[in-house]
Amino acid sequence: MSADPPLLLVLDLLGVAVFAASGALAAVYAKLDVFGVVVLAAVTALGGGVLRDILLGINPPTTLQDWTFLSVPAVVGLLVFRWHPAVARLQRAVQLADAFGLALFVTTGTATAFSVGAPGVTAVLVGMITGIGGGVLRDVLLREIPTVLRREIYALAALLGAVVVVIGHELGLPSFPVALVGALLVAAVRVLALWRHWNAPVPR
Amino acid sequence: MSADPPLLLVLDLLGVAVFAASGALAAVYAKLDVFGVVVLAAVTALGGGVLRDILLGINPPTTLQDWTFLSVPAVVGLLVFRWHPAVARLQRAVQLADAFGLALFVTTGTATAFSVGAPGVTAVLVGMITGIGGGVLRDVLLREIPTVLRREIYALAALLGAVVVVIGHELGLPSFPVALVGALLVAAVRVLALWRHWNAPVPR
Amino acid sequence: MSADPPLLLVLDLLGVAVFAASGALAAVYAKLDVFGVVVLAAVTALGGGVLRDILLGINPPTTLQDWTFLSVPAVVGLLVFRWHPAVARLQRAVQLADAFGLALFVTTGTATAFSVGAPGVTAVLVGMITGIGGGVLRDVLLREIPTVLRREIYALAALLGAVVVVIGHELGLPSFPVALVGALLVAAVRVLALWRHWNAPVPR
Fold first, then answer.
1. Is the torsion defined by CA of A136, A140, A143, A146 positive or negative?
2. Chain C interface residues facing chain B, Cβ-Cβ under 8 Å?
3. In B87, C37, C198, C199, which residue has its Cα 20 to 30 A from B193's Cα atom?
4. Dihedral, CA atoms, C58, C62, C63, C68, nearest 10 degrees?
5. What distance, in Å, lies between the first and last C-alpha atoms of chain B?
6. What's in the GO CC field (chains A, B, C) (predicted)?
7. Using an 8 Å Cβ cutoff, are A132 and A157 in contact?
């Protein structure tokens, strides 16, 4: 989101596509109609960025100003609607891609907060919300308790990545390598959690 | 919403009243208390406009600045609370009035986005959200998967109307006739969908 | 929230702590993991203030700019996660403390709306939303119909307190005593509703 160089834009659209696929698949399982599937794809893919911009006072939200960011979830939503059994078989690949999407959204969200002059604590929270907000909206619309609050070290991975970016910023380190380290940390924690079936403790 | 001439204001309040009735009736069925019924009436009637203003950076939202817009859902909520069996018998009339309310909210929402300088793509989305946002909030608060994403070509009607207004704006056509055509299209699609039991395709 | 004198800050943090405990306890019952419990504590404690600031155009929301306001729900969330049976036995004390938290949030929310120049009607609504918003978000995330709309004269108490503050403001009365009267009214209505098992009428 809000990335200038071509490489970042491509990564960004890839993250949007992956989140859109997760939203569309959940909507298919909930028996929404084709239009609902596309809306869920868009909400899941763009919701985190919209929440970020609402909290930071960026009006209208940047991802709602660009056909590119909207056409990706629309196309992904239609593809998933038509070929969802095939997408469901790729579940493991989708989860890995989702780890990467989360990593990207958390680090760009944190950076966006700094770009409008927010303090470190706000940047951590906004980065985390950018990463997990779309998934939370998806689950609320589908009447599920948000998965990210229940399983597999998801929100914690987002928090760790955002904290790394904020610490790097406070120390005055160059922003691109710091963002890379933060993103790799998010992705690594997610992949390890999936692979090793890590879960956070639940109440006794 | 935010309409100047008396006719538009009356139409606007009528749209608010119809959406309020739909929210109050759903709240009655969900066994909310009288205060919850009034709150649901207000959220359903004003929620779309509030989301519109949050996304466009209009603070505080215009419909929260005027007793008129609040007293209508309050009165409607109390009437429905007391006489809900009679209102439920008018179901078909309420659905027709709802089609008209949707048409109005979508077109004024799209126009409001243009009035603050938003680009066309944002105007389409904001118009759609103005129209369907109140119903989505109603369903989320009542723990339902939003009806508009599941049935009867509701969100699609909103999208079509918003697109017509945006195309008219991009072509430089006069805004009132364009808004009228957009609104009639929304209402016509809704009435046809209800009458012919049109539904969008669902996943196999 | 946003209180300057030390006494108000302490009261404010106490209100945050109580709301955090209610959110954490609900999350424990819903079997969220430890991280989800902390997130629910934070959302319940800070959600009303964040909604207030979004509606008033205060960006980023003030409670997201201060480690103090975040560390309280984090600590409370962890304590409740570990010792929730003990907290559950204190249910009556938690409910009384919650009445006090609601009183505080409603009156400071109403005052914040006036401080940015909002009209009276907006101040009433924003005050009410500041008080009940966190609880509504808690219930939506846990897939419950919001308790405040169903039982025990909760939202009505908030409304009454906000109206008192607004009337005092419109009459030009000194703000601190007016806020005190408004807060005491909220707390008194809540305590009476709990003690006498008052409920608002439900539909026949």
1. positive
2. 54-57, 113, 118-119, 121-122, 125-126, 136, 140, 143-146, 148-151, 153, 155-156, 199-203
3. B87
4. 180
5. 40
6. plasma membrane
7. no
At B173, list the tokens: 């056509």
Q: B35 exposed, middle or buried (CB, 10 Å; 0-12, 13-18, 19+)?
A: buried
For B9-65, write each residue's pLDDT tens digit: 787 888 899 999 999 999 999 989 899 999 999 999 999 999 999 999 999 999 899
Rounded-to-integer distance, Cα B114 and Cα B123, Å: 6
In three-state secondary structure terms, A111 is: helix
CA torsion, points C72, C73, C75, C81, in degrees to nearest 10?
A: 160
Instruction: Give the number of other CB atoms < 10 A from CB of residue C82.
Output: 15
DSSP class of residue A168? H
Q: Which two tokens stand for residue C92?
A: 């009556």
Residues of C in contact with A163 (CB under 8 A): none
Query: To which residue do tokens 């204001």 refer?
Result: B9
Of how many residues is chain C composed? 204
Which of B57, B85, B55, B70 shows the shortest CA–CA distance to B1? B70
Alpha helices in chain C (DSSP H): 6-29, 34-56, 67-89, 91-115, 120-141, 154-170, 175-195
| Helix and strand element counts for chain A (H, E) | 7, 0
Query: Checking phi first, is residue B146 left (phi over 0); if not, alpha (psi -120 to 50) or beta?
Result: beta
pLDDT by residue for chain A (204 residues), tens only, comes to 444 567 777 878 888 999 999 999 999 999 898 999 999 999 999 999 999 999 999 999 998 998 888 999 999 999 999 998 888 888 788 888 888 989 999 999 999 999 999 999 999 999 999 999 999 999 999 999 998 888 768 888 999 999 999 999 999 999 889 999 999 999 999 999 888 888 778 887
Q: What's the alpha-carbon Rg for chain B, to the nearest Å?
A: 16
Whether the CB-CB separation of C174 and C59 falls below 8 Å is answered with: no
Amino acid in position C182:
G
- Interchain contact, B60 vs C113, CB within 8 Å: yes
Asked if C33 and A149 count as a contact pair (C-beta separation under 8 A), the reply is yes
Element (H, E) at A47: helix A34-56
Distance CA(C61)–CA(A56), nearest Å, equals 8
d(CA A191, CA A187): 6
Chain A contact residues (CB < 8 Å to C): 54-57, 113, 118-119, 121-122, 125-126, 136, 140, 143-146, 148-151, 153, 155-156, 199-203
Chain B residues with CB within 8 Å of chain C CB: 27-28, 30-37, 39-40, 50, 54, 57, 59-61, 64-67, 70, 81, 84, 140-143
> Which residue type is seen at C24?
A
Q: How does pLDDT run across A127-181, given as a tens digit for each residue?
A: 999 999 999 999 999 999 998 888 768 888 999 999 999 999 999 999 889 999 9
Find, in chain C, the residue whose alpha carbon is nearest to that of A152: C33
Distance linking the first and last C-alpha atoms of chain A: 40
**Residues of C with Cβ-Cβ distance to B28 under 8 angstroms:** 203
| CA B62 and chain centroid, separation | 15
Say if residues B103 and B183 touch (Cβ distance below 8 Å).
yes
